[in-house]
């Protein structure tokens, strides 16, 4: 399993999707902390992650994404699975 530094890319995606400055984003930032991170915003986030990282996010995984740290964990897992194929 390789170590991936997703921080800059994830922060950039959050900044673009939720119209916030990347430096405002931490691993503890959660749904509800950002005004636009509602159900529609979550769908936009999922699509941005799919496009950026070329991954498929299962519905169960999408539901696990309550914080930025959760998002990084899911994306890292999916990228590592993709690499091992």
Question: Which key terms come to mind for this protein?
Answer:
85 residues, mainly alpha, Non-ribosomal Peptide Synthetase Peptidyl Carrier Protein, Chain A, 58% helix, globular
Topology:
Layout: H1 7-18, H2 39-53, H3 59-64, H4 68-83
Helix pairs in contact: 1-2
Mean pLDDT: 93
The helix/strand series, from N terminus to C terminus, equals HHHH
CATH class: Mainly Alpha
Judging from the principal axes of the Cα atoms, what is the shape? Answer: globular
- Distance, first to last CA: 12 Å
Number of self-contained structural domains: 1
Largest sheet: none
Low-confidence stretches: none
CATH architecture: Orthogonal Bundle
Count of helical segments? 4
Using DSSP, what is the number of strands?
Answer: 0
Q: Classify the secondary structure makeup into a structural class.
A: mainly alpha
Rg over CA atoms? 12 Å
CATH fold node name: Non-ribosomal Peptide Synthetase Peptidyl Carrier Protein, Chain A
| Helix amount | 55-70%
Q: Strand content of the residues, in percent?
A: under 5%
CATH homologous superfamily caption: ACP-like
What this model shows, in words?
- The protein is mainly alpha-helical and 85 residues long.
- The chain has helices at residues 7-18, 39-53, 59-64, 68-83.
- The radius of gyration is 12 Å and the shape is globular.
- 58% of the residues lie in helices and 0% in strands.
- Helix 1 (7-18) packs across helix 2 (39-53).
- It has a single domain (7-83), classed as ACP-like (Non-ribosomal Peptide Synthetase Peptidyl Carrier Protein, Chain A, Orthogonal Bundle), CATH 1.10.1200.
């Amino acid at each position: 399993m390789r170590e991936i530094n997703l921080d800059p890319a994830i922060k950039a995606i959050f900044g673009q999707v939720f119209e916030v400055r990347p430096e405002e984003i931490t691993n503890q930032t959660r749904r509800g902390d950002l005004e636009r991170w509602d159900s529609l915003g979550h769908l936009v986030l999922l699509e941005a992650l799919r496009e950026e990282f070329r991954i498929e996010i299962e519905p169960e995984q999408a539901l696990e994404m309550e914080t930025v740290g959760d998002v990084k964990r899911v994306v890292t897992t999916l990228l590592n699975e993709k690499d091992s194929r």
